[in-house]
Amino acid sequence: MTEFRDQDLSGSRFERVNLRDSAFSEVDLTGAKLRASDFDDATIRGTSLHRTRLLGVELVDVEIYGELQNVQVNGVDIGPLVEAELNRRMPERAKMHPADAEGFRAAWAILERLWEDTVERARTFPEEALHRSVNDEWSFIQTLRHLNFATAAWVGRMILGNPSPWHPLDLPWDEAPGWEGIPWDREARPSLDEVLAVRAARQTTVRDVLASLTDTQLASSVSQTAPGWPVLEGFPFKDCLHIVLNEEWEHRLYTERDLALLELAT
């Protein structure tokens, strides 16, 4: 098997080349042109497709999970259609985009209630199953570890100003570049109770921030310039909380989906 690592192949031309079952990681395809290419059974994960044009394609039996903004299919922007349908199926989803302090408190209460039910469902599985990946996604326990990381980053570091709010079990996203001083042990196998203890503390932190939250705070901005992640100046306070709400909502849906598949496998 040929390997290409840390090479500049920009401007290369591939014609009648067999790349079946190849793996691409941290590959820059900006401005690439693909014609008469076969992507059957391909998996594309954690990838930016901004301003991508797909012309004359066949999309059959395709699954797409991601953020849709100005995505036109046959001249129709499908983003608003998908949003409306998801909100129809899950009315509480529409409450995950609050505009005022009271709305954020209500949204967080919904998330805590929903996650309580999800954790209760997870406890019906053997703990070994909670470490099991489904379709190359994170395991249930890894998902909780990632949510702990997200809360530490956007609430502990950005809102509360702690430059290093991390716990050794925190888990960044898989495509993260990595940073000195931020834990990233994807293969750790802590117990569910260990991870839930960290999560309970992080949830309490969010609850405390929201308890005293005002609309004036929501209209303000926050900055964090210490080494690590995130490093942002003048970032909207409200957006930090929106990111946390989105992470909590979406990852709970992923875990419910994967728990259902684990049930079918047993």
Number of strands: 4
N-to-C SSE string, H for helix and E for strand: EEHHHHHHEEH
Helix content: 40-55%
CATH architecture of the domain at 98-265: Up-down Bundle
Query: What does the average pLDDT come to?
Result: 91
If strands are numbered along the chain, what order do they take across the biggest sheet? 1-2
- List low-confidence stretches: none
**What structural class do helix, strand and pairing data support?**
mainly alpha
Strand content: under 5%
How does the major sheet shape up?
A: 2 strands, antiparallel
Q: Any idea of the CATH topology of the domain at 98-265?
A: Four Helix Bundle (Hemerythrin (Met), subunit A)
Radius of gyration: 21 Å
Please count the helical segments. Answer: 7
Going by CATH, the homologous superfamily of the domain at 98-265 would be dinb family like domain
Any idea of the CATH class of the domain at 98-265?
Answer: Mainly Alpha
Domain DinB-like: 111-253
InterPro entries: 5peptide_repeat, DinB-like, DinB/YfiT-like
Pfam family, one: DinB_2
Protein name: Pentapeptide repeat protein
Brief synopsis:
The protein has 266 residues and is mostly helical. The protein is built from seven helices and four strands, in the order ββααααααββα.
Topology:
Layout: E1 72-73, E2 76-77, H1 79-89, H2 101-122, H3 127-130, H4 140-159, H5 192-211, H6 215-218, E3 221-224, E4 232-236, H7 237-265
Antiparallel strand pairs: 1-2, 3-4
Helix pairs in contact: 2-5, 2-7, 4-5, 4-7
Characterise this structure.
The protein is mostly helical and 266 residues long. It has a domain of 168 residues: dinb family like domain (Four Helix Bundle (Hemerythrin (Met), subunit A)). The chain has seven helices and four strands; from the N terminus they run E-E-H-H-H-H-H-H-E-E-H. A hairpin with a 2-residue loop joins strand 1 and strand 2. Helix 4 packs antiparallel against helix 7. The longest helix is centred in the C-terminal third of the chain and has 29 residues. The protein is globular, with a radius of gyration of 21 Å. The two termini are 36 Å apart. This is Pentapeptide repeat protein. InterPro entries: 5peptide_repeat, DinB-like, DinB/YfiT-like. It holds the Pfam family Pentapeptide.
